[in-house]
Amino acid sequence: MSKQLSGVLTALTTPFDADELIDTDKLKLVVDRSIKAGVDGVVAAGSTGEVGALSSDERLRLVDTVIEHTDGRVPVIAQTGATTTAEAIRLSRAAEKSGADVLMLITPFYEPLSTEETVAYIKDVASAVELPVMLYNIPAVTGVNLDPSTVRSLAEEVDNIRYIKDSSANWEQALQLIHHHSDVIGTFIGWDSYIYSALVEGAAGVMAGAANVVPDEIVAVNRLIAEGDLHGALAKWKNLYPVIDAMISVPFISAVKAGLALQGEPVGAPRRPTAELPAEQVEKIGQALKTLAGRTG
To answer: Which of 94, 114, 210, 267 is 20 to 30 Å from 228 by CA-CA measure?
Structure first.
C-alpha cells in the first residue's frame, strides 16, 4: 500500500447460497459494487461479514477471494483477529502472504480479558507481521474497551499499528481519538450513524456496512466534505440518514442483506442461527430507500 489509508471503507457482507456456503460469485459482485461507487477500500471478514459464523478455513478463502478479485483496484483490509493469539497470528500471516494491504485485529471475544491481556495479544500479533495493523475496538462484543490512552501507547510502542476502527458508539471517545491522537494513529469510525459527524470532525475515514447498500451516497458525502462543501454534504446526509437509521435500528447483519435484496442485489440469508428480518422491518428499510431514490434520482 503506497499511501495512507483514508476515506470510505466498505465492511463487506458475506453472501451465502441456499446451503449456507459462501457464494464467491456474489461476493465478487458485492466487491465490484463498492469499487464502482468509488469507495477507498474494502474489508473482508469483519463483523458485517459474519466472521463469528465462519470457520478458519472459510475466513482464509474469503480473504483470498476478495484480494484476488479486487486485484489492486482498492486496498483490502483483512480482519484477522481471533480468540487465541496463535490463531490470530496464523490468520494474519496468511492474509499478509495473500496480498492484503492492512490487517484489522479484533481483540479476543467470548471470555472478556483484562486490559493487560488484551494489550499483550495485540503486541504479539502485530509483531508477527510487517503489514500495517488496524486495531478493532468493539467492546460490546469483546467486553474490553480500548481507551484512547491505551491506543496511543500501543501506536507509539508498535511501529506497524497505524489505525483504529472504533465501534464503541462512544462519541466522546471517538472525538478524543480524532483530536488528541491523530498524530500517531488514524481513526476510522465504525458506527454508521456517525458517518457525517466523523468525517466533518476530521476522522481518517469511516468503515460502513451500509456502504454495501448505498455506497454511492456515502462516497458522495465524503467527497463533498473533503472539498469543503459542508452545506452540500449535510444536504446529502439528511437524505441518506433515514436509510442508515432504519438499518442500524434492527439487527445489522440482516439489515445489510435485506437492503441489498431491496436494491436488486440478493446475497442470500444470514447464516443460521442469525435470522432474516421480519417483513415489517424490511418494509421500513425499503421505504427509506424509496424515499432516498426519489430525492436523489
So the answer is: 210
**Rounded to 5 degrees, what angle do the CA atoms 250, 253, 254 make?**
65
Cell numbers placing 59: 475466513
Look up 165 and say whether it is catalytic. Answer: yes
136 is annotated as an active-site residue: yes
pLDDT category at 219 given cuts 50, 70, 90 is very high
Options 136, 194, 196, 241, the catalytic residue: 136
Residues paired with 100 in a beta bridge: none
| % of the chain exceeding 90 in pLDDT | 97
Q: Are 74 and 39 in contact (CB under 8 A)?
A: yes
279-296 vs 252-262: helix axis angle to the nearest 10? 50
**pLDDT for the residue 1:** 52
Q: Identify whether the C-beta of residue 288 lies closer than 8 Å to the C-beta of residue 250.
A: no
Q: How open is the CA angle 227-74-122, to the nearest 5 degrees?
A: 100
Task: Give the C-alpha distances (Å, rounded to integers) separating 42 from 1, 118, 296.
Answer: 13, 26, 25
DSSP category for residue 278: P
Give yes or no for a contact between 101 and 131, defined as CB atoms under 8 angstroms apart. yes
Which pTM value belongs to this model?
0.97
Query: Which of 26, 165, 236, 284 is the catalytic position?
Result: 165
d(CA 277, CA 195) in angstroms, rounded, equals: 24
